[in-house]
Design brief:
two-stranded antiparallel sheet; about 10% strand; 25 helices; 7-stranded antiparallel sheet
């Protein structure tokens, strides 16, 4: 079967393992020279299909094999043992066996590396504690309901009138809590607590960015429009503005224009402190170059005075045509969980008159090593595993320094190691140190460091978000390394091999898929972009198309609220997209992947060892090394040196290589853990693997018999 499945020219190469002397096999009284290629071929052809079928079905009743079976078995064994093996094929198998066992050893290390890293980061960010605070604050501003108001949720604000009503009647009562649930007045020490446990750090900050006035694009209509334009995302404005105040406060900075009426501010004196020039100018002047105008709502003021300050901003038109963005920044401290939190409620003033809302929240744990004693143990375990991983990674550098190009996987391991150390220094010397300094500033007094503390909390929460992103990237690199160590074991690498084998088909599928999606997105933008924000740009339309892929029909719900013509066109567009892309195109992708998976899964099952056996052999090799016994690594290393410059490899050469691999003659035993032969495959690589395994086993047995003969243990 071997001879019939291979081309004769493949076995006629000069770079083969050849026996040192002719081997004669007696087959039915006929001497066959096994060192002669034609003789072996003739012998195999002599055993035709009929002979194989006859001897396979003619066993005696007592189970003893008849002479034909014994003769056929003897001939097959001699032919199999004396077949020629290419040196490159043998070396490839030895190298693959080494990589497989090394990878099986690295699998637990990569898994342990991932677990310890994730555990260490989780103690740093402590998502569970942070979630408790953020969930409470988010509920207060986004989901708490006021039945007596038409606008009670922040996300329902879409006009200036709605914003000012929400600020006075929702934001101030929920943020500046000064009475309990039954209406009793709280002590001033308990003011400024959100959901009982979250204390406001200093004051709530209102800030906005403003754009500079400019001429409109269509100059001929400027007179009709009656005012200048205020394009967004241009150079920020830093000029004083606001409705001027009537005497005796006419010196308060404001925007003075002809015909503008002044505001009687006598009712705001107590809340604003207009006699103080600094307080009077607050919110309407900007002394910095960043273009940010700030106004403060202190938690030390009574709630009615805070509401009066909000009405003062509304009366002086704090938000006007030049406003680009408004932010309400609330900095909090939760002493129960040792967490700093910053909540930002943002309004985007669009030039079409619509106001969009955004809510963001970020938190950071003050000192995880004081909060939990396990944080130190987790970090210690992570750094131990990182040190072992670094040693293994650095051990590959000598080959690179000698001029060998590094592989992708070596570069990936090096990048993961560098990122891990960068993250460690970033945490200990950056984020942790910064939170400790903020804590000390708060302990000294918020009145002295209010602006600095809030700015530093904003910066450290932003840095923490970047830290989380880099940690997630490092976890992804660990995942890639796990794929690297399993790809040499066919049973574990089935999924990876599936995508590799189907990569060409997937690439062409993606080209067609993206073209179809882009065309549907373009049609959606042209048809519905003027009415629906989900289609207002090509990028929004592409996102909407991908939402439809996962059965998110919110875009269709918005279409149904429009006129009948738009509904009809919208139904046609949605139905066509869902039928073509979701029901047909995506199922074609699934068919491509599954067909390839079935093929690769069948190939992996045929004649391959499972991972458990590879792990057993790997750990058995470790035991053999401690017992000073040779393993497959020693045989391969000795053979590489011995056969480096040899064109023809003989059993004597293999025997001497195996002998050099022995540490001590009196301790040498048969090599344990060598892989057994798998089932025969029709491919030449499986045949070469089987023969290479048997060749190595023969070398070891030959050496054992030679030593036993010299010690006269056997005749």
């Amino acid at each position: 079967q071997v001879m019939e499945s291979e081309n004769s020219s493949q076995w006629a190469s000069s770079r083969r393992i050849l026996p040192t002397s002719d081997v004669q096999v007696n087959m039915d009284g006929q001497e066959v020279n096994m060192n002669n290629f034609d003789s072996r071929t003739n012998l195999m052809q002599g055993l035709g299909d009929g002979e194989y079928q006859r001897v396979a079905t003619s066993a005696n009743d007592d189970g003893e094999a008849p002479g034909s079976i014994r003769r056929a078995t003897s001939a097959a064994r001699n032919i199999r043992d004396q077949l020629e093996i290419g040196r490159e094929e043998l070396m490839e198998y030895l190298s693959r066996s080494k990589r497989t066992r090394e990878s099986c050893i690295r699998i637990p290390l990569v898994v342990l590396l991932t677990i310890t890293f994730f555990s260490s980061v989780m103690f740093h960010v402590d998502v569970a504690r942070v979630c408790e605070v953020e969930r409470a604050v988010e509920h207060i501003y986004l989901f708490s309901d006021r039945k007596d108001l038409s606008i009670s949720h922040f996300q329902d604000i879409h006009s200036l009138g709605e914003f000012w009503d929400w600020m006075e009647h929702v934001f101030v009562p929920t943020t500046f809590v000064q009475t309990d649930h039954v209406g009793n007045q709280l002590s001033q020490a308990d003011w400024g607590r959100i959901s009982q446990y979250n204390r406001i750090l200093g004051s709530v900050r209102l800030q906005q960015r403003r754009s500079r006035p400019a001429t409109c694009a269509i100059h001929v209509l400027d007179a009709f429009y009656g005012s200048e334009c205020h394009p967004k995302d241009r150079e920020p404005d830093n000029q004083p503005y606001g409705t001027p105040l009537c005497p005796p406060y006419e010196n308060v900075p404001a925007k003075h224009e002809d015909g503008m009426q002044c505001l009687d501010a006598s009712g705001y004196q107590e809340a604003i402190g207009l006699h103080d020039a600094t307080s009077a100018a607050e919110g309407f002047t900007n002394d910095t170059e960043d273009g940010v105008y700030r106004f403060w709502l202190s938690d030390k003021l009574a709630a009615k005075l805070v509401a009066e300050r909000v009405r003062y901003l509304e009366a002086r038109h704090w938000i006007d045509r030049q406003t680009d963005m408004v932010e309400i920044v609330v900095s909090l401290y939760n002493g129960e969980l040792s967490v700093f939190t910053e909540a930002i409620l943002k309004l985007n003033v669009e030039r079409g008159g619509y106001i969009g809302t955004e809510f963001s929240i970020a938190s950071i744990l003050l000192d995880p090593y004081k909060v939990s004693g396990y944080a130190t143990l987790s970090d210690a375990g992570w750094y131990v595993v990182l040190a072992i991983y670094s040693i293994l990674t650095i051990s590959t550098l000598p080959g690179v320094l000698k001029g060998r190009w590094p592989t992708f996987w070596e570069l990936l391991s090096l990048a993961s190691m560098i990122i891990s150390y960068v993250l460690s220094f970033w945490w200990h010397l950056g984020l942790l140190q910064e939170t400790r300094e903020i804590t000390s500033k708060v302990a000294e007094g918020m009145l002295l460091h209010e602006v600095e503390v809030q700015d530093r909390i904003s910066q450290v929460t932003s840095d923490l978000q970047s830290y989380r992103i880099v940690c997630s990237l490092n976890l992804f690199f660990f995942l890639l390394q796990f794929l690297d160590v399993i790809r040499v074991q066919p049973r574990l690498a089935v999924i990876l091999d599936t995508f590799a084998a189907a990569s060409t088909d997937i690439f062409h599928f993606v080209l067609v898929f993206m073209t179809i999606v882009f065309c549907f997105a373009g049609m959606g933008t042209l048809l519905f972009g003027h009415e629906l924000k989900a289609f207002s740009s090509i990028s929004n339309s592409i996102v909407t198309c991908f939402e439809l892929l996962v059965a998110d029909m919110s875009a269709w719900q918005e279409m149904k609220a429009l006129d009948q013509q738009t509904v009809t066109i919208g139904f046609t567009w949605v139905a066509g997209y869902v039928c073509l892309v979701t029901l047909i195109i995506l199922n074609m992708l699934l068919a491509i992947v599954m067909d390839t998976y079935n093929a690769r899964h069948g190939m992996a099952k045929e004649g391959e060892k499972d991972w458990s056996k590879e792990v057993f052999h790997s750990f058995n090799d470790v035991v053999q090394r401690f017992a000073r016994r040779p393993t497959i690594y020693d045989v391969a290393r000795a053979f590489e040196e011995k056969a480096k410059n040899a064109d023809v490899i003989t059993p004597d050469l293999l025997a001497s290589s195996a002998e050099e691999a022995e540490p001590k003659e009196d301790e040498q035993k048969e090599v344990q853990g060598l892989p057994r032969s798998g089932s025969r495959s029709s491919q030449s690589s499986s045949i070469s693997k089987d023969l290479a395994e048997r060749c190595i086993q023969r070398v070891v047995n030959y050496q054992r018999l030679r030593r036993a003969s010299r010690s006269e243990e056997i005749p």
